[in-house]
Amino acid sequence: MNLHFLDKWRKGSGERRTAAPLAEAVREEPGAVAELLSECELLRAEAGRAGVELDDSAASLAALDQLQPVWRDDPEVLPWLGNDAGLYLGTVLVRTVPGTRWRIRPDGQPVVALASGREIDVVAAGHEWADDGAPELSQLYAEVAER
């Protein structure tokens, strides 16, 4: 994966690192950033163990909603899996809903921007899903896709 923006970000040190280089990268190299955000390695591994293939489709979100939430028993895994679930939801939205794109807020949080200008905090939604199972990822996708 060729992610030139990471080189710029790494050159900053400690306190000087901000969301600005990442936000700039989204504008300059949206495909590379989208690829990075789509990795969701922990979620993909968990889904794979359950026999679910994550193919970046709406159907895969429905399949995730049906998984047995064994990660809730592991307080170390839970936040990471929630983060991955949110990034995966965002990936499916950006790849399948016309006019959506990734945007990085000033605090560094990736969100999905809709053509209407509305933003979806997919990471927060992923954490809610991982913690409680609600709202379902497929339900969130359907609500956004129909707008």
Mean pLDDT: 87
How many beta strands in the DSSP annotation?
Answer: 3
Q: What is the rounded distance between the termini?
A: 33 Å
Helix content: 55-70%
How would you describe this structure to a colleague?
By secondary structure, the chain is mainly alpha-helical. 55% of the residues lie in helices and 7% in strands. The chain contains 8 helices and 3 strands, in the order H-H-H-H-H-H-E-E-E-H-H. It has helices spanning 4-11, 20-28, 30-37, 41-49, 58-65, 78-96, 122-132, 137-145, and strands spanning 101-104, 110-113, 119-120. A 3-stranded antiparallel β-sheet has the order 1-2-3. A hairpin with a 5-residue loop joins strand 1 (101-104) and strand 2 (110-113). Mean pLDDT is 87; it is low at 1-6.
